Amino acid sequence: MNYETRLTRLAASLEDVDAMLITGAENVRYVSGFSGSSGAVLVRPEQGWLITDFRYWEQAEREAPHLTLVRQREALWQSVAEHVLELGVERVGFEADKVSVDYWQHLQAITPKVAWQPKVGLVESLRVIKDQDELRLLTEAADIAAQALAATLARVRVGMQEWDVAVELEAQMRRLGSDGPSFDTIAVAGPRASLPHGKPSRRRIEAGDLLTIDYGATTRGYHSDETVTVAMGEASAEARAVYEIVRLAQAAGLDQVRPGVAASTVDAAARAVINDAGHGEFFGHSTGHGVGLEVHEAPWVSQKSATDWTLAEGMVLTVEPGIYLPGRLGVRLEDTVVVTSAGYNRVTKTDKGWREL
Q1: Which residues contact 338 (CB under 8 A, 6 or more apart)?
Q2: What is the dihedral of CA 9, 13, 139, 213, to 10 degrees?
Q3: DSSP labels for 13-58?
Q4: How high does pLDDT run on average in the chain?
């Protein structure tokens, strides 16, 4: 990872402040490489500092050698404020959506002459375009997840609990080298598959159920995200029909993915297929989102987002329409793709055709 370049790009965006305080965990990792759970980065055009405590000194020296290490003595906010005073800067930006009111008040109390200016999205705007190292890690995570899914589905049987499926899948991902799951695995079957984010239960899978699995692996902080829906033996005609609508909706959304297209256009294309089939009221979430150091990040593929992102080469996003018929069944199909000059390439590669176990 070229962290020096990232810091340079961030520093170049500091037009109205003398320094920028980075406290969001994923943003700290993006600009520094530091993966500890407690730390902050202070950036000026000519230099950067990583502030963390005793628990992470050795780790910080190893992961962020390009930054000057400031050893935290008391509370993190106190060490940050004291270092700002040492630098003698007058205007400091901070991540307004990452800093608590309590933290901000402490900073102001110690540095009454410093103008703290709220900023939102400075680092995130850099993160939205992935470099080759990031794409490699995202692909590695997706490949691990896909291998784990294949091994898990080979063991899934009628009579197993939803919980068993989730536990097996997460164990397989770890065995294959994942740092851990991207999120709590979703494995819901039959009438419980109508819960878009349902937690795996002790309900036993029955013959004819549709089983929806939403899962992902992580590699060095980067996530994969994919959803499959499979049939447990012969499913009903209704289930097959709903599945086909979702499959066509996903294909329609994917067909719109290319540079210069508004993210809302991807959402609209997928949503139109489901609306035209008479199931619009049962597709209540957005069509997708970005994936990277967070499993949900910009760009947002939605008609409701405050920012309608224009797709650009190097963006990574999901396309995941679904239909959820309350108390009856649910289907969601999701792939993660990277936007290329020619359109897109799949990061997740599990086939989304109809499948019976």
Answers
A1: 130, 135, 138, 314, 315, 316, 344, 345, 347
A2: 160
A3: T-SS-SEEEE--HHHHHHHH----SS-EEEEETTEEEEEE-GGGHH
A4: 96
pLDDT digits (tens, 9 = 90+) for 12-28: 989 899 999 999 999 99
Summarised one tens digit per residue, pLDDT across range 292-348 is 999 999 999 998 877 899 999 999 999 999 999 999 999 999 999 999 999 999 999
> Rg for the chain (alpha carbons), in Å?
23
Burial annotation 47-85 (CB, 10 A radius, 16+ → b, else e):
ebbbbbbeebeeebeebbeebebbebeeebbebbbbbbe
- Angstrom distance (rounded) from CA 337 to CA 353: 17
Contacts of 141 (CB under 8 A, 6+ apart): 178, 182, 216, 217, 218, 219, 222, 223, 224
Q: What are phi and psi of 304, to 5 degrees?
A: -105, -10
Q: Do domains 3-127 and 132-346 have the same CATH topology?
A: no
φ, ψ (nearest 5 deg) of residue 114: -90, 135
- Using left for φ > 0, alpha for ψ between -120 and 50, and beta otherwise, residue 184 falls in beta
Q: Where are the domains of the chain?
A: 3-127, 132-346
Which segments of 215-351 does DSSP mark as H helices, in order? 237-255, 263-276
Q: In terms of CATH, what superfamily is 132-346?
A: Creatinase/methionine aminopeptidase superfamily (3.90.230.10)
DSSP string across 203-241: PBP-TT-EEEEEE-BEETTEE--EEEEEESSSPPHHHHH
Report yes or no: 121 and 24 within 8 Å, Cβ to Cβ.
Answer: no
Residues in the chain: 357
Q: What is the pTM of this model?
A: 0.95
State phi, psi for 102 to the nearest 5 degrees. Answer: -60, -45
Number of Cβ within a 10 Å radius of residue 125: 13
Side-chain-side CA neighbours of 218 within 13 Å: the count stands at 14
Look at domain 3-127 and name its CATH class.
alpha beta
Q: How far apart are the first and last CA of the chain?
A: 41
Q: Which residue has the tokens 């490949």?
A: 143
pLDDT in tens, 153-209: 999 999 999 999 999 999 999 999 999 999 999 999 999 999 999 999 999 999 999
